[in-house]
């Protein structure tokens, strides 16, 4: 079941505050248009009543599609550095809401779900796009790590970045290079799609080198480019 509420949202251009309907959860099986809206960046798209500016009002939302065995929890991008805590939080909420407290038919289906944690509308759209394209998302993240290493000389001047798959056309993967802090586009990049099958042969090596990429819900190359959590030491 999908759920939503009315919230105050602020236009980033003119600071006008207005009411908008924002989802808490989206049942993709019952709300068929939701997947397209997320992939196209239209979920939570608001048009300012004052200046006409269109903007995304980012708010945490859970997307679930039992038939496709997909569950994606999206948090606003500015919470990405808290991914270690949020991975545990999402796992505990999932166990409580979809396994322990849900009807037997739902809990049995939930145990087979592919569960992912993402941050911001771009990662949200990308994850559902990757599922739709039939690409192994963890293999894609390994591909991003490999590409960043191979093209470091071209990327280093851009500072900290992440890659976002925009599409696969014919035999080509189309990526946007995003600034890691702001999430804004800074460059476009392409790679041959056959690189996926090439790197799939090295999956065991990637699993040994990046175990959390395969074991955790924030299955993203970006987790390896974020700063480690602060550790407080008693004086």
Layout of helices and strands, plus pairs?
Elements: E1 3-10, E2 17-27, H1 34-39, E3 45-47, E4 54-56, E5 61-65, E6 70-75, H2 83-100, H3 104-110, E7 114-119, H4 120-133, H5 137-150, H6 152-155, E8 161-169, E9 172-179, E10 185-192, H7 195-200, H8 203-209, H9 211-215
Parallel strand pairs: 2-5, 6-7
Antiparallel strand pairs: 1-2, 3-4, 5-6, 8-9, 9-10
Provide a descriptive summary of the structure in words:
- The chain is an alpha+beta fold and 235 residues long.
- It has 2 domains: 3-133, no CATH class; 137-210, no CATH class.
- It is 34% helix and 29% strand.
- The protein has helices at 34-39, 83-100, 104-110, 120-133, 137-150, 152-155, 195-200, 203-209, 211-215; strands at residues 3-10, 17-27, 45-47, 54-56, 61-65, 70-75, 114-119, 161-169, 172-179, 185-192.
- Strand 5 and strand 6 form a beta hairpin.
- It is globular and about 45 Å long.
Brief summary of the model shown:
34% of the residues lie in helices and 29% in strands. The protein has 235 residues and is an alpha+beta fold.
Whole-number mean pLDDT: 93
Please state the CA-atom Rg, rounded to the nearest Å.
19 Å
The overall strand count is 10
Instruction: Please outline the major beta sheet.
Output: 5 strands, mixed
Structural class estimated from helices and strands? alpha+beta
Distance between the termini: 50 Å
User: Which stretches are low in confidence, meaning pLDDT under 50 for 5 or more residues running?
Assistant: none
| Total separate domains | 2
Helix residue percentage: 25-40%
One letter per element, helices H and strands E, the order comes to EEHEEEEHHEHHHEEEHHH
Please state how the strands of the largest beta sheet are arranged side by side: 1-2-5-6-7
Beta-strand residue fraction: 25-35%
């Amino acid at each position: 079941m999908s759920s939503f509420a009315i919230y105050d949202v602020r236009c980033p251009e003119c600071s006008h505050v207005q009411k908008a309907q924002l989802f808490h959860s989206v049942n993709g099986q019952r709300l068929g248009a939701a997947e397209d809206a997320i992939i196209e960046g239209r979920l939570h798209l608001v048009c300012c009543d004052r200046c006409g500016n269109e903007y995304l009002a980012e708010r945490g939302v859970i997307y679930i599609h039992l038939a496709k065995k997909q569950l994606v929890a999206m948090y606003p991008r500015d919470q990405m550095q808290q991914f270690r805590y949020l991975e545990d939080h999402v796992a505990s909420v999932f166990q409580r809401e979809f396994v322990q407290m849900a009807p037997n038919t739902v809990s049995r289906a939930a145990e087979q779900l592919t569960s992912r944690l993402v941050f911001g509308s771009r990662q949200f759209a990308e994850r559902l796009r990757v599922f739709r394209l039939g690409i192994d998302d963890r293999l894609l993240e390994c591909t991003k790590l490999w590409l960043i290493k191979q093209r470091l000389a071209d990327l280093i001047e851009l500072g900290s970045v992440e890659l976002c798959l925009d599409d696969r056309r014919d035999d080509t993967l189309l990526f946007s290079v995003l600034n890691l802090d702001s999430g804004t586009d800074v460059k476009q990049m392409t790679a041959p799609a056959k690189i996926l099958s090439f790197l799939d042969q090295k999956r065991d090596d990637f699993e040994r080198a990046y175990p959390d990429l395969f074991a955790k819900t924030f299955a993203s190359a970006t987790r390896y480019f974020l700063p480690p959590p602060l550790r407080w030491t008693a004086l």
